[in-house]
Amino acid sequence: MSNPAYLHRQAIAEPGRLAPCHSPMNLRATAYLFGMDAPALDNARVLYVGCGSGEGLFPFALAYPGAQLIGIDASASEIEQGQRIAQALRLTNISLFAQDYADLGMGADTQPFDYVIITGLYSFLAPDQAQTMLDRCAQWLASNGILYVDYHVYPGAKAQEVVRDAVLLHGHSAQTEEQLRGSATAALTLFNEGLSSFNPQVTPLRMAAAQLQRGLEGDVQTGANALSSHPCYFIELAGRAAQAGLGYVGDAMPLAEIALNHGQNVSLTNSLLTIGQPTTVKQQYLDFASGRGFRQSLFTTHATAERLRPRPDLERLKGLRWACGAQRLAANGQEQGATYVDHLGRGLVTTESHMVKLLDTLSHAWPGSLPYTTLVAVLMHAENLDDAGARKLLDKALTTLLEHDLAHYCVDAGPYDREGDVPVRPLACIAVTPDGKDERLAIPRFNLWHERVKLVFSDNQREMARRLGEGLPLLQVNTAPAPDEPGVVQDSSSLLEFLGLLKRYGLLEGSASAWVSLLGTALSASKGDAQLFGLYTGALARVSLNQRILSLSAMTGGLPSAAASLAIRIQGLLSESQYDKAEALARQLAKTVPGASAAWEPLAVTLCNSGRFREALAPTLRMLELAPARAQCYIILASCLTALTRTSEAIGAARRAVELAPYDASTHGVLGDALCSELRYKEAQASCLAALALDPNQEKARTNLGKILMDRGDAEGAVAAARTAVALAPKALIPHNNLLFSLNYSPSASAQEVFDAYRQYNQTHCEGLRSTWRAHTNSRDARRPIRIGYVSPDFRQHSGNNFIEPLLAHHDRKDFETHAYAEFVAEDAVTARFKRYFDKWTPTAGMSDSALAERIRADGIDILVDVAGHTGGNRLGVFARKPAPVSLTWLGFGYTTGLTAIDYIVSDEMMAPSGSEHLFSEKPWRLADTNFVYRAGTTMGDCGDLPALNNGYITLGSLTRAIRVNDKVVRVWSEILHRIPKSRLIVNSNSYRDGPMREELANRFIAQGIERDRLLIGWESPPWNVLRSMDIGLDCFPHNSGVTLVETVYMGVPYVTLADRPSVGRIGSSILHGIGHPEWISQSQEEYIQKVVALASDLPALARIRANLRAEMHASPLMDEPAFARKFEAALRGMFTTWCESQA
């Protein structure tokens, strides 16, 4: 039987006192499938026999304050505990009584009960007591009420008897209960470890032993003696129920009642053998066929039972509401499909698109529920189906969810489906703090679907729960300290985690609209900085689904004609990059028609296009508030969040855009962009391909496909994809930048071919701007202080800080006036530190190239320095306008920009050797020793001893990204592994946090004859311990590594490099020359191999290198910060002097 939930229940048996299966909600909905209209829940009367401390009653009492609940248990101490908990939870609709089950009774004036629940008890009563209990419950049951009883049944329980007999035999001499338990535990080892493989009953015996073990350990939580079970055949219990005046309804797991679900042959035989027989006989034969050992039966009065269906009618699924708390996980490299897991660890992997749509929809609504009709409409919209086709798929999907125990259903509104503006509060079970004087009071954790919650809150989370319970706004619920530095965003990650847990576990109550309001208010107050858009997107979706609004047209919230004309003017200005003018008109438009979503869109788009993504969040939020089911709102939101590296929120927004407009290529394109930014390559690639299937010219998708190939290490594929993207959009900058970037890594392109592509970039994008060049009026006094402008997107937390900060910190502020042109969205603590290095700081995000060029001219900059090249956030369009007399590029990219407008590239003899000038559009200005300077971080720690001395083998390693590990590198590294017996290879970088990426690389080495256990591929950050475990580092080619090479040698690990194409193929050479170890530079692949083998062959020498390398670096030009600053300034002075002496 393909029913994991059923098989799990048969293996575990008792569900426990707190479980969804016997909640009144589930009993009413299950009875509905059998054609029974059980009593409504709002004012239901519920009796729970064997309730323990009442934990199975508390969720229902909280959800339905008008209901009346009575619990009975034989343990006075448990009842006392339950009474105290009920009082702490402020529940006034629960009464708990201690009674012996043999004397079970009620007053003569007791009103009938709508629901009577007996769990974990019936099979452990003596037969006469069990019959008396059935008789009593039948007397107390309302005419259309439901009695739930679970119990052990034959034939499956025969195994339980075998185990019990073995335990009793082994413990026959036990004198005390403790001794008996010890003997029982010992006896169970027979079934856990000592069963013969030829025993045909191995599986049922082990299941029975596990059930008994849990009973002995108290995990079942019923208080029954695990050795005193009295199983029976189902037909016997049905007879006893009939004797009490009860009739059979069905099982709490209704799919188990359908013979076909146990197999076609089972169904056919069952129907033939039971022709004309009552339902109970049919079910007994089904038990014989399935070996069933545990049942959860629903009974009602005999008169009501006669009118019911003999089996669950799945056509009636359409009359129910549905809820599911499973959330989608990152694919972790899956080729297709999606994985969903709920808070209890139950999961489902599916490749069916309709199931994905259903689960994503239910995830939005969770912990609320949605009616069947809404789910049909969702599938019709998402899958382009007619009503019949959608219902067929939905019925199949809902059945699958039931089989995996992932769905809750109910007849009426669910326990979280509150109407109106009911405020959002934590459930009482987590909001209540027990009296400190009563340490015995342990409040059980649960949600209103009767699921047990195993969640431990930190002190910080308990404080946030208290604040939320008091109704404080979310920004005041947040316990993170306010930042000291202006412009730095308050950390809301802990608040997000806390709220996410409450939603996932179903620990929040309140209306859907109140949840939207709570989140929206926090986002508005923080101007979008609070990291709550993921939750907010889902909250808006829930409200829209409740209203049956599946999407709004692009023109929803459209504009009157005058405003529409203004919007068209704004669009024209944006196409010309006139952001300042566009912004002024966009703000005017939003002010003129503030109630239209479309009126806010031009402002959001203008701010995005000008790079002010953080500012764009506020108008985007306003768009969402006015049109929460309009796909364009989520496209803009996802774009902003992706640019702000808030990728988790961006993915949620983009997925919502796809849900609303599944046949719009731009929604899939923006989702691919967000997934790509989070390095979820397989999913990103699928989204990009979906976008291109809808629109082959979708630029974002085409660009991202190339980036995905690059990040996955396919340089040649990335080059081909980039060329295609450039051909489709020859004037687009990003595809062309991607082409140049990927060509740098191509193992087959010649140096001249690479440079030709850079020249083509300049011809296409920059040469036309020569008409904007004007003569510079800067003073030509070569001895005066020089005004330098640094243009960078990286004056923030960035790996390049260790290389530029030593220069900035040591600039001679008398002779050099420094200006920063900072091109980034959000500042951080590093930004605040960097600001101290400059005389003037100008944020440039949002400034057009022409506007920024004019600003630089107005500032009188003498030398303009590019430290980005063709990396993201570059402003090469500014340099192409020649806004300063002298311009140069340095550090950030490692190779030429291709721009003839830039005068110099600062390099050295290693990176730009004499004779290579024809490969640069700029004139190389070579610094002595090295063009790098390095300041080590403070958290790297000691180098440690040489690992090979303890390991007995050499560990080679690299921290490179996948794009550098081409087939030539793999062949050379494999040959090294062959020549150094027992050696191992570490490859550690962010590229390999993805499991399939790790195995893909491993398979390439395996193809070269390298055993898998010699390869240590993964990702650990920061990598200091990884470096401490290396003996020798390996550089890549034709594109060397960069920052990680300096970190490698600083940790005492020598590396060997191959001097390849200028200049990115010679970065490793420059670093080694700068620290005085040119002997580790090779000129051929064979020499590379030999140098590594030579280092590995002399462990004492290798140990000395490790012991001394860091000190050598500190004494080298690479780490002499003041000397480097003087050297760099001398170069600047030389460049400026050359201009001063030239003709104006």
Automatic annotation (TrEMBL):
It comes from the Bacteria. CDD domains: AdoMet_MTases (cd02440). One of its GO terms (molecular function) is protein O-acetylglucosaminyltransferase activity. Pfam families: ANAPC3, Glyco_transf_41, Methyltransf_31, MethyTransf_Reg, TPR_16. It is an enzyme of class 2 (transferase). Pathway: Protein modification; protein glycosylation. Residues 230-300 form the Methyltransferase regulatory domain. Residues 42-158 form the Methyltransferase domain. Keywords: Glycosyltransferase, Repeat, TPR repeat, Transferase. Residues 779-933, 963-1125 form the O-GlcNAc transferase C-terminal domain. SUPFAM superfamilies: S-adenosyl-L-methionine-dependent methyltransferases, TPR-like. InterPro entries: Glycosyltr_41/O-GlcNAc_trsf (IPR051939), Methyltranfer_dom (IPR025714), MeTrfase_reg_dom_prd (IPR018773), OGT/SEC/SPY_C (IPR029489), SAM-dependent_MTases_sf (IPR029063), TPR-like_helical_dom_sf (IPR011990), TPR_rpt (IPR019734). Its EC number is 2.4.1.255. Belongs to the glycosyltransferase 41 family. O-GlcNAc transferase subfamily. This is protein O-GlcNAc transferase. It comes from Achromobacter spanius. The lineage of its organism: Bacteria, Pseudomonadati, Pseudomonadota, Betaproteobacteria, Burkholderiales.
